[in-house]
Amino acid sequence: MIEVIYILWLRQLKHYWRSKARLLGSLGQPLLFMIAFGFGFGPMYTRASGGGNYMDFLAPGIVSMSILFTAIFSGLEVIWDRQFGFLKETFVAPISRTEIMVGKTLGGATIAMIQGLIVLSLTYVLGFRISSLASLGMGLIFMSLIAIFFTGLGLTIASSMEDMQGFQLIMNFLIMPIFFLSGALFPLENLPPAIYFISRIDPLTYGVDGLRGVLSGMSTFGIYSDLAVIGTLSVLVCIIGALLFSKVEA
């Protein structure tokens, strides 16, 4: 079982590493957001917060964004493999579909983590600093849970689709509200009640808040509450994804 999961995990990492355009292109949007929002809204945030550093607030949100976009689009691998016959070859092998799902989820989550770590390292150039190695360790836990949840979500949705263009349209429709309503770019305090309610049911909200709490010391809901929520959701989406993936027809 472990060998099968490892091979599927390694296959996705090799695809990622060989696609240099994908690696570099996925860094463009996080950099744009960091520069545009960091320098554009930074002075306003400093005045509103009485001297706070907006980059300390923004950086965890942009890292989460990078993980979100990379992880959720890993579902394209399932549709791609179905169209080119690799999925059928995998299904006829003497392995369970749960093993395939776990291997693909871990592969997609690892790629998303790599992207997140690259973006996190780039935030240092713009002045963001992590206080300690313990904070970094907790940050890696939150980053991995965000990656696992949204990779599992992408694979779950892809399991019931065959059209690659349709999948991309649905993902674009989902991820922008998920990102903008998560508190990645602005504080959740003093929002209109309706927007605040939507933010509270947004899974990324708890990943962003927890990551910001451990890296910058700014948490709205509490680090351990965030950890419990995003951890539970990650387990649930993987279970649901495995059940749906077991019904996929190549």
TrEMBL record:
A molecular function annotated in GO for this UniProt entry is: ABC-type transporter activity
Cellular localization per UniProt: Membrane
How does the protein associate with the membrane?
Multi-pass membrane protein
Does the keyword Protease feature in the UniProt annotation?
no
Keywords, comma-separated and alphabetical: Membrane, Transmembrane, Transmembrane helix
Read off the PROSITE patterns from this record: ABC_TM2
- Major localization class: membrane
Keyword Translocase in the entry? The reply is no
InterPro entries hit by this protein:
ABC2_TM, ABC2_TM_bact-type, ABC_2_transport, Daunbcin-R_ABC-transpt, Nod_factor_ABC_transporter
GO CC annotation, single: ATP-binding cassette (ABC) transporter complex
Protein name per UniProt: ABC transporter permease
Origin organism of this chain?
A: Methanosarcina acetivorans
